[in-house]
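Reading a protein record of the kind used here takes only a little practice. The record below shows the convention in full.

——
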Amino acid sequence: MKKFVLLFSMLFALAVNAQDNYYSMYSFVVEPENQATVVKLIDDYYSNNKPEGIFVRLFENHFQDGSEKATHHIVFSGTQDALGEMYASNDEKFALFITQVNQHTKNGGGSALGRHISIHMDEGEGQRFPFQRIYLLQADDTQAFDEAYAKFHSKHRPDDTLSLLASPMLGEGWGEYNRVAVVGFKDMKSAIGGAGALLPEKAREARQKAQTERRANDGNVEIKGSALRILLGAW
């Protein structure tokens, strides 16, 4: 799997407790003429061979800074047991799949393992947020930041959006940032405007006030990078 590094963009075991929700992520480069082939290969494989208890998401990087070379990420998320079983059960069919994908991709610069800390979204199964803002953060006091983040998004998250906080443990990002925040939207217009723009005026003012208070007590956080990714497939 050296070449087809499945990247971190983190998400989505939404049906399980975030404290036992881990992700692994791999990044890779796909030339435009090969994207349809790669998406089809991944769709064909995971439509028929999805690991039990695992959510699989394929993303295209749309807006990103110059340090990010990968064009795509694939993210696996689930409990520790489910992820462990996924890595223990790769067989010849999986090896063939990776060989086929490698013929149409290039190394993208990284892979990662991490843990989801908190997930905030509306209740209901099968929800998807295809357009996601990603923020790479370095918090001096992670405990203070985690508590402030959860308190803020539990009260001021607009409907039909996702707020997720994750912690990289190994691989990409380690030593550069210690938190990843994901804000998911149902459409590109909402992703462009941001979460605050989805609220009525009074709620938006309350959110802005709460955000100012949060930043004064969130453990001194520095933004190390940002991006916007688009969901291409989910299994």
